[in-house]
Amino acid sequence: MSRDRTHILPCCQGAVTQRCCQPALWKMTENCFMHHRTKVLTIDTMNPNVKKVEYAVRGPIVQRAVQIEKELKAGAKKPFSEVIRANIGDAHAMGQRPITFFRQVLALCSYPELLEGNEFPEDAKERARRILQACGGGSIGAYSASQGIECVRQDVARYIQERDGGIPCNPDNIYLSTGASDAIVTILKLLVCGEGRNRTGVMIPIPQYPLYSAALADLGAVQIEYYLDEENCWSLDVSELRRALVAAQQHCSPRALCIINPGNPTGQVQSRQCIEDVIRFAAEEHLFLMADEVYQDNVYAEGCEFHSFKKVLFEMGPEYSDTVELVSFHSTSKCYMGECGFRGGYMEVINMDPDVKVQLTKLVSVRLCPPVPGQALLDVVVNPPRPGEPSFNTYIKERTSTLQVLAEKAWLTEEVFNTVPGITCNPVQGAMYSFPRISLPERAIQQAKEKGQAPDMFYCMKLLEETGICLVPGSGFGQREGTYHFRMTILPPTDKLKIVLEKVKQFHQSFTQQYS
Amino acid sequence: MSQNRFQNLYPPMPSIFMAPTEIMYDAKHLFLFSHTQGVKKPYKEVIDICWGDAHSGGTKPLTFVRQVIAVCIYPELLQETTIAPDVKERARRLLRECPGGSVGKYCVCGIPFVQDGVCEFISKRDGGVPSYPEDIFICSGSQNALMFVLKLLVHGKGLAQTGVLTPIPCYPTFVMGLTELGAAMVPYYLCEDDGWCLHVEELRRALATSRSHCNPRILYVINPGNPTGHVQSRESIEEVIRFAAEEELFIFADEVYQDMMYAEGSQFVSYKKVLFEMGPQYSNTVELASFHSVSKGIMGECGLRCGYVELVNLDPSVKQSVTSAFNTERNTAVIGQIALNIMVDPPKPGDPSYPTFSQVSLHETVEALPGTSFQAGSGGIYAYLRLDLPQKALLQAKEEGTDPDLMYCSRLLEEEGVCLVVGKEHGQQEGTYHIRICIGTTSTRLKEVLRRLKSFHLRFLNEFS
Fold first, then answer.
1. Which of B10, B58, B153 faces A362 most closely, judged by CB atoms?
2. Where does the record place the Aminotransferase class I/classII large domain (chain A) (predicted)?
3. Which of A109, A323, B291, B331 counts the highest number of beta carbons within 10 A?
């Protein structure tokens, strides 16, 4: 390594230090030799966990969809005039109307001068006043306590208690969060530790909502996959849980079991018996239960009912209710509210070790607090108009109608897809998605592999290019080897949904023909 | 559940810090409890001036901001005659930019319209230095943004553990964040006697000593400072940039108080601007993350949780990974993004709402009390006073088994109902004691705080003389 600096042009000499005297690092530019400083953040020096993270719901197919939208805007000619984003469970983006009462209360909280006027009903004003009184300086612009505004947590506790037939709920066990995702990741942060064979393993369903796999990759946890049973309407079989656990014990330390009920992407609603079995399993195997229940109001199928994990746990008696550690998650983004953009959510922690709870409380304080408008929204969701109040009729009408329309669309989707040879669709019992299985011709699978794409990604990309419909390939959620799926939301307005279903049907038929 | 199932989240914090805020908050809650039990106190209410939270401190939100938000939430208000036309126009524009026309929609990296506005703001602020939307990441507050960027860089153990040069004093939430991510904090001391300025020799010393136990890669600066209020001169910023370039450090410039300048003649200049004015050997190479937020400034919308980070000179190889990583988690509340849009593109002279969207002046007249010294800052939202505690007080604290500044603050809370932040939470040189007061509040409130503080302080000095 030469220390001779005579070759360095004067303009650069000031920046040169000992480390820089390597000719290989000099890069020629127009006017002079510029020192090529090694960047601090390169693909090699990046946090390796971050590199592993993928999130299919917003992955390459969505990026292509965004590109196509730009092309259309710029006037490009395509066999369709718009991209239909049936990839993400975003109700309002698909035209679902918000609940009037909620928006009224939020508007009042945002601009309290409206409390003086006549535009808003008394019950909305009363709730807004109550929320504002609990905010610093009477403003939703003040920081709240990290765990969330106390009166909101109390209201959430009351809601849970009513929902679960009177089983007590302690507001201290409620942590408000920035959507449910934030709470899920927070709990995972607490759980993941250890090295090598002691590294935390977390059981997740396949197919799963890819937030889980992304978070586990990000935290460097071990992903333990248990398969839902497609032949039986995506039900959960405890023997499969056991199989997965036993296999995992060889190489990690399983500590948690995640359930999504109603399921995403599968939409199945677990039976009460199933939930009991899962709780028993978790108790036997000393696992921390994480129950993702954000779709709890989205239940459509005959004979299906939402059973909260907490309720079932407590009805199983103290042997379980005193010991099994459970966290349940909920949010304002789904159900009939669909307010994804407000980032409202909470978790209830049950039977958590008090010392760990202290750590949890500290952990949530690092992000200061969840968005206060989201907390306010959550408050009014758990404390909606009651019979006799001025806004009750409108509220009930809007809520019922939204859920009813979703139920109709769920049924319509299942029906149409099952008329297509090569597509089988399990009943969409709940949540917001269909996850039909598609059979792909061998030639298509080959071509996909040649392209280095998962076969269902290949299929979905073609679908996007030819019809403008954006779905998420099943490979993004996980599926049994040799099977292919896509996830489509049931959110587009009914007439649009009918068109989408028809187009997918036609595409599938032509695709099958093309590659047979 | 046994403790060992959970990660040991908070290994003992560096000894210059103590567990943040808990202790004062416990004290405050204990006190509030006794208050509700009817215990008589010489004051009616506790004044909490811990947080840099203007609204909690009695500052009113800006009408334009809140009207636009209300209209976006409930577009029926567009029919209201009492709402100014520029409010309606802004709300309509924002709603158009939300697909589905609703603020209830997910917004991944940020509403593009808002990102564009941020770029224009930055560029205008920096005298034309360009800013690009793909470099702007809108997050749920600057803390969230800090954690996001830290996470890209922090990894490794032992000698490979990423080290972050951190100013002392520093606000405790940042340090907690470092602990959460497993970064090594590398403290560098700001010079109190020199108005809390940053001396590069001190940076050099800190860096050199850190190399024996970690891999320092990040240099964190807060400008204007928290808690100090010190605003860096251009020369100082240049020195820091030169240092970062030499030592191959990624600069994290926390500039959330940039719109809160109050001293006569003082001026904020951004790290980015200075970087670009230092010529291509720096402006093309030095990696910089600069952070801003709607929590401070004249809007003070802490509860809406919105901020952004601009990433400058990222290596092309990482851009895709950074975007993918960001897509996974970052969903910033739409309401917050609306506030951000207004912050970067406020009403202009001539707009109907301009007169009410006026400057809120900070009342920074914190006079020095006997037995304290105060290096007045030029910006930010805090006054950071040094307490020169009498020897007897130090001994008393030792007897009580507590820290002198904590003893001082606990008594202040008890006797006068004023809740401040103890200096130890920020880190301080051994044997020095400080208190932090949020001055971003109404002048009435601040006067009351100072009155009570003075009354207590003189009594305290008297007791321990």
1. B10
2. 108-503
3. A109
Average pLDDT over residues B59-81: 95
Q: Do B251 and B219 lie in a common domain? A: yes
Last residue of a domain, one of B280, B315, B344: B344
Instruction: For residue B30, name the pLDDT band (cuts at 50, 70, 90).
Output: low
Contacts 24+ apart (CB under 8 A), B185-188: B185/B14, B186/B210, B186/B214, B186/B216, B187/B14, B187/B16, B187/B427
CATH number at residue B445: 3.90.1150.10
Using CB atoms within 10 A of its CB, is residue A128 exposed (0-12), middle (13-18) or buried (19+)?
Answer: buried
Q: How confident is the model at residue B107 (pLDDT cuts 50, 70, 90)?
A: low
Number of separate domains in chain B? 2
Q: How far is B193 from chain A (nearest CA, A)?
A: 31
Q: What residues in B contact A179, CB-CB < 8 Å?
A: 331
Q: pTM, whole model, 2 decimals?
A: 0.91
Instruction: Identify from B281, B288, B293, B441 which residue to disrupt to test chain A contact, counting A C-beta atoms within 10 A and taking the largest count.
Output: B281
**Residue pair B63/B463 in contact by the 8 Å Cβ criterion:** no
Residue A460 burial by Cβ neighbours in a 10 Å radius (0-12, 13-18, 19+): buried
Phi and psi dihedrals of A205, rounded to 5? -75, 150
Question: Cβ contact (<8 Å) for A374 and B9?
Answer: no
N residues, chain A: 516
Min distance A249 CA to chain B CA atoms (Å):
15
pLDDT in tens, A468-512: 999 999 999 999 999 999 999 999 999 999 999 999 999 999 999
Are B305 and B264 part of one and the same domain? Answer: yes
Mean confidence (pLDDT) of chain A: 90
Mark yes or no for CB contact A137/B59 under 8 Å: yes
Q: Are B107 and B219 part of one and the same domain? A: yes
Query: Taking CB atoms and an 8 Å cutoff, what residues of chain A touch B147?
Result: 366-367
**Residue A364, H or E segment:** helix A354-365
Decide if B150 is inside a domain.
yes
User: In this structure, is residue B68 part of a structural domain?
Assistant: no
B387 and B290 assigned to the same domain: no
- Give the span between the Cα atoms of A212 and A203, in whole angstroms: 10
B273 in the same domain as B203: yes
Q: How many CB pairs under 8 A join A and B?
A: 276
Clarify whether residues B368 and B231 are in a common domain: no
Query: B114 and B35 in one domain?
Result: no
**Residues of chain A with C-beta less than 8 angstroms from the C-beta of B332:** 343
Instruction: Among B3, B4, B6, pick the best mutation site for testing chain A contact (most A Cβ within 10 A).
Output: B6
Please report the pLDDT score of residue B37 as a whole number. Answer: 64
The verdict on whether omega for the bond into residue B346 sits within 30 degrees of 0, i.e. cis, is no
Task: Please report residues of B whose CB lies closer than 8 A to that of A137.
Answer: 53, 55-59
Length of chain B: 465
ipTM: 0.90
Give which of A17, A35, A41, A100 to mutate to test B binding, by max B Cβ within 10 Å: A41
Considering only the beta carbons, identify the residue of A41, A135, A372 that sits closest to B152: A41
Cβ–Cβ below 8 Å for A366 and B333: no
Residue A103 has pLDDT above 50, yes or no: yes
Q: What is the mean pLDDT of chain B?
A: 87
Quote the domain boundaries for residue B401.
19-48+364-463
Yes or no, beta carbons of B318 and A43 under 8 Å apart: yes
Residue A245 is which amino acid? L
Q: What is the mean pLDDT of residues A380-409?
A: 96
Residues of A in contact with B176 (CB under 8 A): 362, 365-366
Would you tell me how many other CB atoms lie within 10 Å of the CB of residue A82?
Answer: 12
Q: Is the pLDDT of residue B108 over 90?
A: no
Q: How far apart are CA B105 and CA B33, in angstroms?
A: 41
Would you say residue B349 lies in a domain?
no
